[in-house]
Amino acid sequence: DSMTKIQQWLKTCSEEHEQCLISPESRLPRRVLEISNRRAKLIVSNGKVAPYVSLSHCWGPKPIIKLLASNMKELQENIPWNKLSKTFQDAITVAWKLGFRYIWIDALCILQDSFEDWEYHASKLAQVFADSQLTISASRSADGSGGCFSSRAQEPWTLLSSGRQVSKLTLWLPYTQEGRDREGCPKEPLLKRAWVFQEQILSARNIHFASGELYFECKSFVACECSGWTARSLSHQWETRWRKSHAVLQGQHTAEFEAYRALIETYSCLEITNPHDRLPALSGITSGRKDIYLAGLWKSILLESLHWYPLSRSHSARGHVMAYRPDGYRAPTWSWASIESPIRFEETNFHWSNFTTTPVARILDAHTVPEGLDPRGRVKDGVLKIQ
Q1: For residue 150, with 0-12 CB atoms within 10 Å meaning exposed, 13-18 middle and 19 or more buried, which class applies?
Q2: C-alpha span between 375 and 380 (Å, rounded)
Q3: pLDDT exceeding 90 applies to what percent of the chain?
Q4: Exposure of 42 by Cβ count < 10 A (0-12 exposed, 13-18 middle, 19+ buried)?
Q5: pLDDT tier for residue 268 given thresholds of 50, 70 and 90
Q6: What 8-state DSSP symbol labels residue 325?
Q7: How far apart are CA 56 and CA 378, in angstroms?
Q8: Which ranges of 277-383 would DSSP assign to H, the alpha helix?
Q9: What digits encode the pLDDT tens for the residues 281-308?
Q10: The whole model's pTM is what?
Q11: Burial of 246 (0-12, 13-18, 19+ CB in 10 A)
């Protein structure tokens, strides 16, 4: 049973993993949904302290119910169950069965017709997902109609050699199947989205409703139904690499540029609906580092970070379209964020190398001007002077 398995994983994590401790006394986000069995309503938390879960999902092209100034009062009284998307219904059901009374869903907790409200909450996403007891990821669903749950594969399949211990062969699908592969589940629709990148890294615990099985992650371990627990220190899966790179950037480390490069090269390949969200969708990851942030670059490693170049989109999942500059200003031209394209960096590091390196340039001045309140969000100007 899926719920029993999730409860077991949560119990093991909360009782045995010291790195994964999350205070149940965390403040709720400004708005959350108060839930019960097949019921939900929007509330303003007013600083209330309580455990909650969050939802990570694909919006997709199909219309879904969302919070607007015109329907806020109605949603605070009651959200009709039949107006919720299948994904929202499933997430609320999972949260309720796990014993939670509150869930945060972006579409229903952020005013979608207020840029000021959107900007405020975009700058708070790091805290929202870090304080959440669990992130429910509807990984297999490309839109709200897909829901969380999926049926087990019934078609014939062949077990390929993996070098990995498998405890439940009936759950282990071929690596070539869409969805799960030998690095976890990065092929799932949700994990191709730029906004989801920071949600996955910042969440202390994450349950993926993936194609054919459940996949659990926390700061210490990863687990799936097919083969049990794997320690993060032994894991080479996609999400472990992201977490490790993010952790390096939170402190002073000789591998800072390598970590930065790994994150940006991955992130720039991900899909985004509004090109001008490219910097805001990265804001949560960048908020913990003590450095000067410059439209997607860090001042302490700026010189080597300028050695970037765009690829044709044929190198990513986004199709055969050349790199382009979005309509309207997005970032200064010396920032990778000025180009909508997968990005690569030259293998250049002036602080850690097997070879002696002597920089032939130095930064005289570098600064950017935020467009709004979030210093790591959209920008409207930038200056770089090099000697």
Answers
A1: middle
A2: 11
A3: 51
A4: buried
A5: very high
A6: P
A7: 22
A8: 283-286, 302-305
A9: 999 888 878 889 999 999 988 998 999 9
A10: 0.84
A11: buried
